[in-house]
Design a protein that fits this description.
By secondary structure, the chain is α+β, with helices and mostly antiparallel strands. It has four helices and nine strands, in the order E-H-E-E-H-E-E-H-E-E-E-E-H. The chain has a five-stranded antiparallel sheet with strand order 2-6-5-4-7, with helices on one face. It has a four-stranded antiparallel sheet with strand order 3-1-8-9. The protein binds adenosine-2'-monophosphate (2AM).
């Protein structure tokens, strides 16, 4: 199965994203929008994984996430990949507000745990974002104005989710396999 670890979006940020998404759905052509329930922030893409390594790694995800504290995030700006040339992906960036480097730290610890469990190293820099839409095959899609978001909302990230990605007509769909709460081990102490 194809797996990835993602931060669950705080409700308040999801709400802001859905307003933006609805606006883009109405005004932009050539894009396939992710269904609202599939919006997420990937922390570590694990790729095609056999069931033994998946099950062996889950206690490590549990531990790493339990040892991290919940953190506050805000949306930054809309962007596209690639930044030049024909765009394939529309996204909205995410940044942590408090206590500071929590989002990057969490991704780094998951990266260490993934390598320790034999997953191939992720070489690309971590760029926290929520993908809202992918270009339709063969389309020259319309582009939105990429301004800073008017939303000033902040919300707490409290959960990391292990997702399975399944190929489906009209694009991949995601299924949550397991949810790991942030800060579980600090609560027990
Ligand atoms: P994206 O949103 O920028 O496309 C499931 O595919 C999730 O894993 C997506 O959020 C996707 O990022 C992310 N991802 C990271 N690396 C990937 C890769 N090499 N192949 C597919 N998806 C990847």
């Amino acid at each position: 199965v194809r797996l990835f670890l993602a931060a669950r979006l705080p409700e308040s940020l999801l709400k802001d994203l859905l307003v933006l998404r609805a606006d883009w759905v109405d005004t932009l052509g050539g894009w396939r929008f992710l269904p609202p329930e599939d919006l997420h922030v990937t922390l570590r893409f694990l790729g095609e994984t056999a069931s033994a390594p998946d099950l062996l790694a889950r206690p490590a995800w549990t531990r790493v996430v339990a040892e991290a504290r919940p953190f506050r995030c805000a949306l930054t700006r809309a962007g596209r990949f690639p930044e030049r040339g024909s765009a394939r992906v529309l996204w909205v960036g995410l940044e942590e507000r408090e206590p500071g480097a929590a989002l990057g730290d969490l991704a780094r610890r998951l990266e260490q745990a993934a390598r320790a469990h034999g997953f191939a190293p992720e070489e690309r820099p971590f760029h926290p974002h929520v993908t809202l839409a992918r270009a339709r095959r063969g389309a020259r899609p319309d582009l939105p104005p990429l301004e800073p978001l008017s939303s000033r909302g902040e919300g707490w990230v409290r959960e990391v989710v292990l997702f399975e990605s399944r190929v489906a007509p009209g694009g991949a769909r995601y299924t949550a396999l397991e949810t790991f709460p942030l800060g579980a081990s600090t609560l027990d102490a």
